[in-house]
């Protein structure tokens, strides 16, 4: 059954200025939020102690905070984790303090108020480890973008390479910006999701670029904008169906997978929506702005005379 017609004639690139304004607004808002509010970094990056505990009845967060404050943990972050009976407690690291002992002290304080409290999960990360993970995570994203730039330049042409990298940077900034704007927890699973978004967005962009290159060589009598519009319309069905089927799986993970995969699935949902949009508008519009032409994509002619002169 064919859900989307292959004969659509939507003028995507004719609306590229509107799309550029929308992208610019989202990027500016994301960058401002990152500099002013920052990210709600998880224990993977900040270090410290993280405890997940479960109560037999709905937990009183105010009482838990009071007990921790009385026990010397003034800066402890206490919040519900999934249900009203599950509580997540995070304490920032302190130099010279054993993280294991801190976890035992917190659990003892909670047990004094409710003997039925049950420890579900405990994580201890030193500040030095958190700093190293932050640096390596940033380097991983930078290295991925550089290698993608080289790959696209070899496979296509430098104008398309710039367009793909612009789209990837666009996707990463907006996805991370959404986590800053809504103060969503940012941990290693979210970083892994962002790296997956880079791969997904790149694959989507390459599929569109492949069709553009093919049509540039077959339809030489039309202008670049017309050819690129026709190529995007031809791939629209594939793009939408791929995105929708992926989103169905991620929505199931978001609502049924529990808190452990909530950040991962949320990052992928945001990234795939933004990545689908950028592969249609940002990547192609950037290549068009660099004045890509048919000549840029034609195979280089072999100089037969030079070959004949070779010994």
Task: Give me the CATH architecture of the largest domain, please.
Answer: Up-down Bundle
Helix percent band: 55-70%
- Which homologous superfamily in CATH is the superfamily of the largest domain? Multidrug efflux transporter AcrB transmembrane domain
> End-to-end span in angstroms?
59 Å
The major sheet is characterized as: 4 strands, antiparallel
- If you average the pLDDT, what whole number results? 82
CATH topology of the largest domain: Multidrug efflux transporter AcrB transmembrane fold
Unreliable runs, pLDDT <50, ≥5 residues? none
Please state roughly what percent of the residues sit in beta strands, choosing from under 5%, 5-15%, 15-25%, 25-35%, 35-45% or over 45%. Answer: 5-15%
Q: What strand order characterises the main sheet?
A: 3-4-2-5
The CATH top-level class label of the largest domain: Mainly Alpha
Number of domains: 2
Order of H and E elements = HEHEHEEHEHHEHHHHHHH
Number of strands: 6
- Radius of gyration, in Å, reads 25 Å
Form type: elongated
**From the helix content, strand content and strand pairing, which structural class follows?**
alpha+beta
Number of helices: 13
């Amino acid at each position: 059954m064919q859900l989307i017609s292959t004969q659509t004639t939507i003028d995507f690139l004719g609306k590229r200025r509107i799309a550029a304004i929308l992208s610019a607004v989202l990027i500016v808002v994301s960058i401002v939020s990152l500099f002013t509010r920052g990210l709600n970094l998880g224990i993977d990056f900040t270090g410290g102690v993280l405890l997940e505990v479960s109560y037999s009845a709905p937990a009183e967060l105010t009482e838990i905070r009071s007990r921790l404050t009385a026990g010397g943990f003034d800066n402890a972050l206490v919040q519900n984790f999934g249900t009203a009976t599950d509580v997540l407690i995070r304490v920032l690291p302190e130099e010279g303090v054993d993280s294991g002992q801190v976890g035992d002290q917190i659990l003892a304080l909670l047990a004094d108020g409710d003997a039925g409290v049950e420890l579900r999960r405990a994580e201890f990360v030193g500040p030095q480890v958190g700093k190293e993970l932050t640096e390596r995570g940033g380097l991983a994203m930078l290295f991925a973008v550089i290698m993608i730039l080289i790959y696209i330049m070899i496979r296509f042409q430098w104008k398309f390479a710039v367009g793909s990298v612009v789209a990837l940077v666009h996707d990463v900034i907006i996805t991370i910006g959404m986590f800053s704007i809504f103060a969503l927890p940012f941990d290693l699973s979210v970083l892994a999701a962002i790296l997956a978004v880079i791969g997904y967005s790149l694959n989507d962009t390459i599929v569109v670029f492949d069709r553009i290159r093919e049509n540039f060589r077959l339809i030489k009598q039309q202008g670049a904008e017309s050819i690129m519009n026709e190529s995007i319309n031809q791939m629209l069905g594939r793009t939408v169906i791929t995105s929708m089927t992926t989103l169905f799986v991620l929505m199931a993970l978001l609502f049924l997978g529990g808190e452990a995969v909530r950040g991962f699935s949320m990052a992928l949902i945001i990234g795939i929506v933004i990545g689908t949009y950028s592969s249609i508008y940002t990547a192609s519009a950037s290549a068009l702005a660099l004045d890509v032409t048919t000549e840029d994509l034609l195979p280089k002619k072999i100089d037969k005379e030079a070959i004949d002169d070779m010994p």
